[in-house]
Design goal:
2 copies of one chain form a homodimer. Chain A has 104 residues and is of the alpha+beta class. The first copy, chain A, is built from 5 helices and 3 strands; from the N terminus they run H-H-E-H-H-E-E-H. Chain A has a 3-stranded antiparallel beta sheet with strand order 1-3-2. At the A-B interface, helix 1, helix 2 and helix 5 of A face helix 1, helix 2 and helix 5 of B. The structure holds a DNA duplex (30 and 30 nucleotides).
Chain lengths: 104, 104
DNA sequence: AAAGCTACTTTGCTTTACCAAGTAGCTTAT
DNA sequence: ATAAGCTACTTGGTAAAGCAAAGTAGCTTT
């Protein structure tokens, strides 16, 4: 019963939600997650999530030079992604309400 | 991004919490979950969770005849289970608060 | 005796988070 | 100038857990 399992499924929605706030890139997303309290998310965890979202057409990608370091891949949410995010939020709300009814 | 992933990790804590309310058995837990809104949890999903909790010493088991149908295995929470449930609740709260900060 | 509810078990599958390591651009300090 | 350190992304292997499907079986009702 570790945190990894609790995070499953939640992380993907959170990453999508962060991208929905405006164009951003992997490293910055990592910092946003950490700022929200989801610390200890490794790069090897985050980047596959991003790749999945991209392959699924929920976000789109654009390469651009960084003013500080190697090239960045900037991501924006797509229309399909916006829809998927709404669906996710609804499902999250339903499940978390059920869980809280049982737990507390 | 289906419900299965969202449920991961949550289910085990919910089952433990239901058992914490008083001695109960598999089939009844299934109905309690459904009543709380966690429908469509199959037997093939629930019973492995129970087995895991039992093997981990978080619940204890007692066999008894059912007034209606085959023999039941009644489960009660152990002291270790009570502790584990408290830990789980704390971790769940932390993660769900982070998630909600990002999502809503 | 057939149907249907109760009750638990088992097998194989898929998804996804994690760890570890690697590649590489750029800046700052010694 | 070179080593350290931050930025930035990639890849490979592992383990956990929910799910579908099927099986076994006791008991009641029609």
């Amino acid at each position: 019963m570790d945190n990894a399992q609790l995070l499953k499924g939640i992380l993907e929605g959170c990453v999508l939600s962060i991208i929905a706030r405006g164009e951003t890139y992997g490293y910055e997303i990592l910092q946003d997650l950490e700022a929200a309290g989801l610390a200890d998310i490794g790069e090897g965890t985050l980047y596959p999530v991003i790749t999945r979202l991209d392959k699924g057409g929920l976000i789109s990608c654009r390469r651009a030079k960084s003013p500080l370091g190697p090239i960045r891949k900037y991501y924006s949410i797509t229309q399909a992604g916006t829809q998927a995010l709404e669906d996710f939020k609804a499902r999250y709300k339903a499940i978390s309400q059920s869980a809280e009814k049982i737990l507390f």
